[in-house]
C-alpha cells in the first residue's frame, strides 16, 4: 500500500473511514514509520487546536430568558405588505394592457378586386365602367 | 409556544458556543443567537413549518456570524489602515494569535474548523455547511494545513 494522503489520514483520525479502509490503514501504520509519526502529530495538533478554540468561549453561562413580549407577531404589517404587492401587480397589469392596445396597429391590408360585366369601354372613365368591386382584407403579417 | 421554549433551552448553548468561536466575541455571539431565535420564533408563529429546526438554526447562526465578521472586517479597515500590523505586534498571547490566524482563513474554512472543533461528525458538518459529504475530509485537512501554516508564519507553535 502507498502512503496515506492527508485527506484519508484526517478521515482515519476522525473515525470516518469505512471498516475496510480502517483495516488497511491500521495495517499500513504498523509498517510505515513516517505515516504513524504523521498520524500522531496530526492528532496532537487537532487536540491542541480544539483545546485552544474551546478556551475562546466561556463555559457554563446560564441560558438567558427569551424576551417574548418584545417580539409580538406583526400580522398587520404582513397584510399591508400583501395589499401593497397586489396593488403594484394590478397597476403593472393595467399599464401593460393599455400600452399593448395602443401600440397595436390595424394590421390589415385591403385590396379591391374588380370584375368587368360586359365590354370594357376604354373611352369612359373608371367610375362609369360597368364593373363590380370586391373588397378583400387580409392580414398584413400573414405575408 | 412550549415547543419553541424547549428548542430554545436545548439549543442555546450549542449555538452560543458556535457563534462565540466563529466571531471570537462573546457579546456579539449572544446578540447573534438572540437574533437567530427571534427569526425562528417569527417563522414558527407565522405558520410556516421548519422541517429540520436544528439545521435551520445552525445555518442561520453560521450565516449571521459570517455577516458579522465581514461587517467587522470592513469597519476595522476603515478605522486603521494598518490595523493588521498593529494587531500582529500587540497580539502576543497565544489566543490572540489563534484568533488572528482564524480571521485570515476563508469564511468556509473557518466555519468548517469551528464545526469540527465542536465535535460534529462529517455527516452533520456537510448538512450545516452544504459541503458534499464525500469531500468533508479533504476540505477539512486542507483547512487544517492552512491554519497550521498561518500559525507557523505568525510564530505560534501549537505544541
Structure description:
The complex is a heterodimer of chains A (143) and B (159). Helix content of chain A is 50%, strand content 13%. Chain A is built from four helices and two strands, in the order H-H-H-H-E-E. In chain A, helix 2 packs across helix 3. With 159 residues, chain B is mainly alpha-helical. Helix content of chain B is 79%, strand content 0%. Chain B contains eight helices and no strands. In chain B, helix 1 packs antiparallel against helix 2. The interface between A and B is large, with 30 and 42 residues.
Summarize this, please?
The complex is a heterodimer of chains A (143) and B (159). Chain A is of the alpha+beta class and 143 residues long.
Largest sheet of chain A: 2 strands, antiparallel
Mean pLDDT of chain B comes to 82
Sequence of strands across the biggest β-sheet of chain A: 1-2
- What helical percentage do the residues of chain A reach? 40-55%
Q: What's the SSE pattern of chain B?
A: HHHHHHHH
Count of helices of chain A?
4
The count of helical stretches of chain B stands at 8
Strand content of chain B: under 5%
Low-confidence stretches of chain A: none
Given helix and strand content, the structural type of chain B is mainly alpha
List segments of chain B where confidence is low: pLDDT < 50 over at least 5 consecutive residues: none
Ends distance of chain A: 76 Å
Based on CA atoms alone, the radius of gyration of chain B comes out at: 17 Å
End-to-end distance of chain B, in Å?
Answer: 48 Å
The largest chain-to-chain contact, stated as pair and per-chain residue counts, equals: A-B, 30 and 42 residues
What do the pLDDT scores of chain A average to?
A: 82
How many β-strand stretches of chain A? Answer: 2
Q: Helix share of residues of chain B? A: over 70%
Q: Choose one word for the global shape of chain B.
A: globular
Topology overview:
The complex is a heterodimer of chains A (143) and B (159).
Chain A: H1 6-13, H2 19-31, H3 33-54, H4 75-103, E1 108-116, E2 131-139
Antiparallel strand pairs in A: 1-2
Helix pairs in contact in A: 2-3
Chain B: H1 2-23, H2 26-45, H3 53-79, H4 83-90, H5 94-104, H6 107-117, H7 122-129, H8 136-153
Amino acid at each position: 500500500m502507498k502512503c496515506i494522503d492527508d485527506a484519508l489520514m484526517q478521515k482515519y483520525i476522525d473515525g470516518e473511514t469505512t471498516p475496510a479502509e480502517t483495516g488497511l490503514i491500521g495495517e499500513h501504520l504498523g509498517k510505515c514509520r513516517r505515516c504513524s509519526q504523521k498520524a500522531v502529530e496530526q492528532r496532537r495538533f487537532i487536540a491542541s487546536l480544539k483545546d485552544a478554540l474551546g478556551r475562546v468561549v466561556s463555559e457554563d453561562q446560564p441560558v438567558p430568558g427569551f424576551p417574548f413580549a418584545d417580539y409580538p407577531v406583526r400580522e398587520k404589517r404582513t397584510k399591508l405588505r400583501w395589499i401593497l404587492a397586489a396593488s403594484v401587480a394590478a397597476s403593472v397589469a393595467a399599464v401593460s394592457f393599455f400600452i399593448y392596445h395602443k401600440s397595436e396597429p390595424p394590421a390589415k391590408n385591403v385590396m379591391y378586386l374588380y370584375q368587368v360585366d360586359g365590354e370594357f369601354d376604354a373611352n369612359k372613365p373608371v367610375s362609369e365602367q360597368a364593373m363590380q368591386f370586391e373588397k378583400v382584407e387580409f392580414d398584413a403579417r400573414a405575408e | 409556544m412550549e415547543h419553541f421554549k424547549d428548542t430554545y433551552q436545548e439549543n442555546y448553548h450549542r449555538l452560543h458556543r458556535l457563534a462565540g468561536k466563529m466571531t471570537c466575541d462573546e457579546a456579539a455571539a449572544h446578540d447573534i443567537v438572540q437574533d437567530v431565535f427571534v427569526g425562528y420564533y417569527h417563522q414558527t408563529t407565522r405558520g410556516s413549518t421548519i422541517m429540520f429546526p436544528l439545521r435551520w438554526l445552525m445555518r442561520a447562526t453560521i450565516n449571521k456570524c459570517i455577516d458579522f465578521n465581514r461587517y467587522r472586517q470592513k469597519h476595522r479597515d476603515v478605522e486603521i489602515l494598518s490595523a493588521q500590523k498593529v494587531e500582529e505586534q500587540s497580539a502576543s498571547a497565544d489566543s490572540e494569535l489563534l484568533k488572528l490566524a482564524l480571521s485570515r482563513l476563508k469564511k468556509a474554512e473557518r466555519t468548517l474548523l469551528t464545526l469540527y472543533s465542536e465535535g460534529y461528525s462529517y455527516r452533520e458538518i456537510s448538512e450545516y455547511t452544504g459541503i458534499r459529504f464525500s469531500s468533508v475530509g479533504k476540505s477539512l485537512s486542507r483547512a487544517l494545513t492552512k491554519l497550521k501554516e498561518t500559525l507557523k508564519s505568525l510564530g505560534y507553535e501549537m505544541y
